[in-house]
Design a protein that fits this description.
This protein has about 300 residues and is mostly helical. The protein has helices at about 1-20, 25-45, 50-60, 65-75, 80-105, 105-120, 125, 140-165, 170-185, 195-200, 205-235, 240-260, 270-280, 285-300. Helix 8 runs parallel beside helix 11 (about 205-235).
């Protein structure tokens, strides 16, 4: 078992290095960033503990992937298999547990720990053999593939929008739409095979515009229920709602540009920092978008003539 975990750590270290972050800096910064993001969530809503628990279980549930567990069963006996599953689930849940204890949510921490341990007996892909249908065509493969992996997160987002109207919390409703935007943005973090891009007959500019148009269209469709619910209930704040809707679309375009500015590699650290800085200070987008667009055109020009 020790060799397996050593291998996992080495693979993680390679991903961090490939992203452009020194290992020492990464292991120092990640806990700090996690703490501040967690603290920010708890400062914004009284329902933070529920969202926090769902986020933890959602992250831990990714360890129940079918092929991965079949591989573990092939190299470990039954006892060691469950030991490995328990250790992985505990490691993924530990940061959330520590913060819950820090905040004094002892009962929730115990429940979360028990649920994470119960997940070692689960294999979500074995529960049913049918393929999860996607409302998207094959053309925008990012949404077709991404939706099947994150469909349950949309249910959470829509539930948050409903809760926002129930408790009269407009900020919670905005967060639900931001969550939809984050889910859509995650579909563009992994670069596709170069052959897929090369096979396109579009120019680099046309290719980028088509990607953005598809993203804007499907983000609009996915966020439409939230826009209708919030626009109806918080009709006095429709202008703020539309402003956030437009901003999320702009950020989605920025993520797409960052992806292809680094193509065929994943988004590197400098470009990732630019995207984060533009999130913190929106006016920064005026410089970031033209810069990333220029880089994306240059990267795509090597494949699209």
């Amino acid at each position: 078992m020790q060799e397996y975990f050593v291998l996992q750590i080495k693979m993680l270290n390679r991903k961090i290095i490939a992203f452009g972050i020194p290992l020492l800096l990464a292991y120092l910064l990640f806990p700090v960033i996690f703490f501040f993001l967690s603290n920010y969530l708890f400062s914004k809503t009284t329902y933070a503990i529920y969202f926090y628990g769902l986020a933890s279980l959602g992250f831990t549930s990714t360890l129940s992937e079918l092929k991965k567990n079949d591989f573990l069963r092939s190299i470990f006996n039954k006892t060691n298999y469950y030991k490995v599953r328990a250790a992985e689930n505990l490691a993924s849940t530990l940061p959330f547990l520590v913060f819950m204890l820090y905040k004094g949510y002892f009962p929730f921490a115990i429940i979360l720990l028990l649920l994470s341990m119960l997940l070692i007996f689960s294999n979500f892909l074995n529960i049913s053999n049918f393929k999860i249908p996607s409302p998207f065509s094959k053309r925008p493969f990012e949404f077709t593939i991404g939706f099947r992996k994150t469909y349950y997160l949309f249910a959470i987002a829509y539930f948050l929008a409903y809760m926002a109207t129930s408790v009269g919390n407009f900020n919670l409703g905005i967060f639900s739409m931001i969550l939809i935007g984050l889910i859509c943005a995650s579909y563009y973090l992994k670069p596709e095979n170069e052959y897929i891009v090369w096979n396109s007959s579009a120019t680099p500019r046309e290719f980028l515009m088509e990607k953005m148009k598809i993203c804007f269209t499907y983000f609009t469709l996915l966020s439409l229920p939230i826009l209708i619910i919030l626009g109806t209930y918080f009709y006095k704040s429709v202008d703020v709602l539309l402003l956030f809707f437009i901003l999320i679309n702009v950020y989605l375009a920025t993520v797409i540009l960052a992806k292809y500015a680094s193509y065929p590699s994943e988004i590197d650290l400098p470009k990732g920092i630019l995207v984060i800085m533009s999130l913190i200070f929106p006016p920064f987008l005026l410089g970031v978008i033209p810069f990333l667009y220029s880089k994306a055109i240059n990267s795509l020009s090597l494949l699209l003539k």
